[in-house]
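Researcher: Let's run the pair from yesterday's discussion. Sequence first, then tokens, for each.
Model: Starting with the first of the pair.
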Amino acid sequence: MISAIGWVPVGVSDPNPKRYELSAAERDVLQAMEEQEGNINNRDQITNKDKRKRGTIKVQVPPSAPASELPADLRMDEYSDDDEADEGAALGNLLLDQPASIAAEVAAEEAERNDSDSNDNGNDEEDGDDHEDDDSDDDLADVPDTREFEPVDVEGLGSMGLYNVGMGTGADMEDMDFDEDDSEAEDVKITDDDAVILVTKTEDDFSALEVHVYDQKRGTLYVHHDIPLPSFPLCLAHGQVSSEGTTGNFCAVGTFDTGIEVWNLDVLNALEPSCILGGEDTSSADEMMKLQMAGGNTKNTKMDMSGMNGASLKPGSHTEAVMSLSWNPIHKQVIASGSADTTVKLWDVTQANDHAKANATTFQHHRGKVQSVVWHPKEGTLLATGGYDRKIALLDARSSGDNAKFVKVQSDCEVLAWDPFHPENLVVGTEDGQISCWDVRKFDTSSPLWTLVANEFGGVTDLSFSPHVPGMLVTCSVDKTVTLWDSYSNGAPIQSGSPTPCGSKDMCAGKLYSVGFYPSTPLLLGCGGSGNILSLWNLEAEEGVKRNFGDRLENIGIKTIDSEEADDTSTPKKEDFEAMMAADRGAEQKSDQNGKKKKKGKKGKKKAHKRGS
């Protein structure tokens, strides 16, 4: 099931994403390990210096000590007379510093043994000469090769371009490695023609954040990479600021857990999020992991962890599932979140590592689960929220929630959206299938500008405005369809009546839960739902779109078919010429048939006249 989708604007993604990136905790662990290794090296150097100063300890036995008084393992002269025993006796004499007379006897015995060895070697050399003579008789160099196959013609293979095929040299192998690296880099490269779509998907109890790429030139759609998630995802929001205050390509994901995970989308094999806002307090476990990886003592840490049967939450964390997210388009380090605990929280991403400062403020103006939060596209402090208490709230994030303005709707709120061309208008989609548009300048004192029933039976699960075409609105529903609406009349927002439907389509993706326009292309939208399929719809060829938005499309440089035909009326087309020729051939065939019928009629009359006569 696809629970949410989002788009990445063109130029935000890194064209050459990284394979892996160390997290802050991993960098701390590596630094601690380097420091510990440096301490060990310093300690070893000090120990070696002390050994050199102290010198080697020698064990000496007084020369006058009789051999019978020595331990049994040191009586080297009582062993057998074989080679190893003699060498052992000599070594024992050297270590025990025996009298010179005994050493002289041992030296004499070694000299005799060396003489005997030299004689034996001489005899072996003579025997070796005989063996060489025998080997010379068995030389097979002059024997012809009677094997059936022929030797390999290297020059012939070279002329055929097959020289060293499959047996490349070291340089060739290095070139092959470079080619493989280049091909892998080319496979993951993202160009300006690629539309990047974010999808939160759950299948067989496995949840993931998938990064899809749609090649607009070739028309291909594929999964670029995916990121495993710990729990069922409910919402996502795209942003460009990291926990370290740097710009990048990030996605915040809300799940059934209490924390908000922020992932770096430019890392292919990301194992941990860049930061987590709220959620369980795992600082003690992180410290224990650092100590274990650094090889430190973890006894005290284990004692502290023993009492954590139920993990505590970070300060300011949500206490239930995170149902909605919105990344501020003006103050790019701020994220708003709505939760099943009926609260709305504001987070500062740059303070994510400081648990006490990450949660900037908390609003408690709703009495039900908060299903939708959305920042104003122009005013960075204006926030709209909608919940299951059938209330839509508008508040200034700089103050407390006591000054929030409310309007009542007939059913639970499902989705909120601002009109990008007239941002004073807020559109609300509810569970009963109704869509209403409110002027926030008269939010709590007036009725909506217009109301329509977009889907009477399936409800409205999501809606989105086109960021390029004024008035183009799209809705999706659990009836598996996507519907287009024109919310403008004569180039301005509708003040009375209701939007005009411009077409509907079954996206073949099951019950739909999320829909959105691509911000970098005027007429491309995507949706997903229970079918676990991401469906895209290019609206350029839709007649309803051309008919209702033709003038607005021409204003942004998109020509419709009618305008192209008007420009090309003076130039005959190949298809028209062929049609004219076919029409002429048809007229000739009809005339021939009529002529034949007339001739037959005349003949019949003549025959009748003859019979009458």
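Model: Moving on to the second of the pair.
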Amino acid sequence: MAQSVEPRSNKRDYSAAARGSGYARDRPLLLSHKGVALLQDPLYNKGIAFTGPERERFGLRGLLPPAQHSLQTQYERFMLRYREQESKIELGSATDLDLWHMLQSVKHRNRVLYYRILMENFQSMSHIIYTPTIGEVCQTWHHRWLSAGHKEMYFGLQDKGQMSSMVYNYPADEVDLVVVTDGSRVLGLGDLGINGAGICIGKLDLYIAAGGFDPARVMPVALDVGCDNEELRNDPYYFGERCTRLLGKEYYDFVDEFISAIHIRYPSALIHFEDFQTPKAQELLAKYRSKILCFNDDIQGTAAVALAAFLAYARGAEIPLDQLRLVCSGAGSSATGVLDLASKYLAQETGKPLEEIRKNFFVLDSKGLIGEGRSKLSEDKSRYISMGGDCLSLLETVKLVKPHILFGLSATKGIFTDEVLGELGKHHAKCLIMPMSNPTSRSECTIQAVAEAMGSKAVFASGSPFKDHFTEEGVVVTGNQCNNAFIFPGLVMGASLAWASRMTDQMLFAAAVRLSQCTTDEEIKRGQIFPRMEGIIGVTEKITAAVARCAVETSVATGGVHGLDWTAPDVIEKMRPYLWKPEYGTYIDYSWQRDNNQART
């Protein structure tokens, strides 16, 4: 039977005993395994970086070559091979998937080295470990899965009633973050069933590399509740349930049992919902967000990073917030999540009624503009019924509205046509164009199309990565990536370090505002509204501190780790020891404790 999830109180026990010791840099690690078992554990394996005394202490002599290389040398050796593989891509003899496999081979052996590589090369590797490459990985996950390489968990239909005991099979005594999917809407690729596990693993790589989460304290999960993708379901190598998806009360009871099981063993873990189908994503977030510390990146993360883009653009274009007009192509959970968060923030900041702010937002679904006279609308769509004609095309809507911002989460490739972009450029000195759909194959337009249609009038921000584009006239259109990775690592780390009881809109506002402040006025005027990805760790630290401070000031957190003063000017420096870094730690042989326990039994 599923256990009901009780509301999470910010007055609960936040003692060390309740939360565990937590991560702290420079704390020695107690290891109870030696020899080959240690070399096969990617969390703690150092490879030939093990020192002489460590090799003696942990039974490694003879199991490694005699040379002792530093982490830096290991990094440099890998990067030589990686650059060789990149050059093959330019020649057409390799693909991004080959780079993904190359990185995974390191991850499966040595997590410290793997995350050192990612942190040093986040700008160039984020699209390899996450979107768009991870989409292709997930489509063929059942062919690429390596049981020895990952430590994800699967909860299936046959596990109903057993989850609270199953969760103790996970090899971590303490977990701060759980990323879970049911695979029902992976990126823009539809239902991938249990193959969605890959998206959780990729997402956690970003949390660790950009946010400072300890890889030993995270947990990727795939909920296998069936699959409605008949082709995938009938693939002889697919390893999920070969049935259509669980629906209705049975589905929500299944999810409830899973969340209860997580909170039995890991009561302070944040649960991140990833790539759930729109109706389920909305209902799950509405059900749990006031009860537990949870987060939906597709709805809340996308909304916060988009709001940051709106604020930076408005600042550069000198447009009052209550006058921003926006046309949105797409009306799914991600799109309406953006509109809901943005309208709430603009109403709060300007003092205007929420309904008045929403009159400046024009939304198109598969039928066209949602206008007066449309019936049988969902609640989230009905908030954005416009005064314009119902079912107008995108071009007709742009002509009518003359928006400052054209925003897309439609998963429809090329829907921002040259004609639409050309019309948009007729009405303002600068317009913000945001094709947000992932992967690149679903993007509403390319940066090349925007540059050719609008030239210097365009400010471009996309969900998938695009390089800066130079027109023949010498105009540079900056390829801003409106990447959720700018938001969710700092947002969730801030909530975790402050020991927040839930994720509130005010915390999302704090993250969006802080992100919008990470670019200067001069950069914004040049068309750069987001920082470069290579600076993401510094951005994340600023957002972490801003979110933690907001959580404390709004009384949804107790203050968190070691009583940090989140208002102090040096708080970022003081919180850094609690952010994981890819460094080899000091190991203490704890096998005697294991041997004593075995002797007693």
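Researcher: Give me one sentence on the second I can quote.
Model: Residues 7-20 have pLDDT under 50 and may be disordered.
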